[in-house]
């Protein structure tokens, strides 16, 4: 059996050959004695043109096919250099496998992404989403390949956890208790000892703390799994369920993992450009005109690097009127991040050494005692793509930081033991996979790079 992707890629070898295709009807046009079908078989985001005529014994049924009917076509491959389509299939036989009904929502016209989100069970049948989700699959493969080639061990960290890695309190609670009939203790509070795990548990916001334990055994590890955040931010860049890649490297300091992150991003870009050239050209024509130029440039220059303090100076002197006022100590907002990478650098840029008060407890305190050895990678069109740091390996410093923040020390006993038993410098980062896909495809809303997005108020499917 032939697949459409192969027809497009190896047109010469198919010239005048007999082919057998199976797929779904995208469009049908017919006149009295002949007609055309655009057929997609899922192997490629493009469709092939099938020409049929009244020689077919079932000509009338074929001409009346509803969109998305599944059919099997036997016919001859012919090059059509004088036409818009490079080739077509002259059908000798068409078998109707499963017809469709005329109310099929994806009729031939341009549908908005907003509308397509309401039919997420059908939208993968469109060119754009066939391209997006193929690139998503390739990028996932590329990331595994990148780390596996370097000897990193992939560690599967738990989805249900008892700790809050980021300390931001944006977790989804997991419970086996009957919410209509909650067991209460003497103080009138929920009796968590009656819950499945005998304690409070949540969906993980990051696999980092567990990954650190493996890094201190395997040296180089990475996670690649789903993470969950109950952030109430209704933006085009936040999802409640997203996938994160978190490498963790023993004996590494901050600049080492910045090098790793830069190499990884460049590798993935190179991989999708090489393995999905047609999809990437499609995004460049229909989604984001500057995409290919931007991605090609990325692989030609080093990423920018500057400190948070330098970034604040640049933003203050920029003369821009930002919505959120700039002063040392603020958490950089997307508008600031995008100004830095788009207007100042015009390429991805690492910002390092953020104030410790706006960052997580595990980040290594710098000499100045005001900043931490943290980095965010900011990329044009998106803002923050990666967040990472060197980890605080000094037990006393970590202890006083946990105390300072007022975290519950007991929950972290195992994490603290890592500092006791052969403390080792180590560093890592987290890459938001969906943001990477947005960056690679030019898609501007995170809802359009996730098969079934989970955002505020939306858990359909
Ligand atoms: O910066 P974050 O919060 O870092 C961590 O979770 C660290 N534990 C990572 C580490 O050092 N191992 O998240 C990392 C990345 C962000 O840069 C962003 O790309 C993505 O995860 N991210 C989100 N993506 C989509 N929706 C959300 N709600 C996201 N929150 C973070
Ligand atoms: Mg971050």
Automatic annotation (TrEMBL):
GO terms for cellular component: cytoplasm. GO terms for molecular function: asparagine-tRNA ligase activity; ATP binding; catalytic activity, acting on a protein; nucleic acid binding; transferase activity. Residues 142-451 form the Aminoacyl-transfer RNA synthetases class-II family profile domain. GO terms for biological process: asparaginyl-tRNA aminoacylation. It catalyses: tRNA(Asn) + L-asparagine + ATP = L-asparaginyl-tRNA(Asn) + AMP + diphosphate + H(+). Its EC number is 6.1.1.22. It is an enzyme of class 6 (ligase). Keywords: Aminoacyl-tRNA synthetase, ATP-binding, Cytoplasm, Ligase, Nucleotide-binding, Protein biosynthesis. It is found in: Cytoplasm. Pfam families: tRNA-synt_2, tRNA_anti-codon. It comes from the Bacteria. NCBIfam families: asnS, PRK03932.1. Belongs to the class-II aminoacyl-tRNA synthetase family. Homodimer. HAMAP family: Asn_tRNA_synth (MF_00534). This is Asparagine--tRNA ligase.
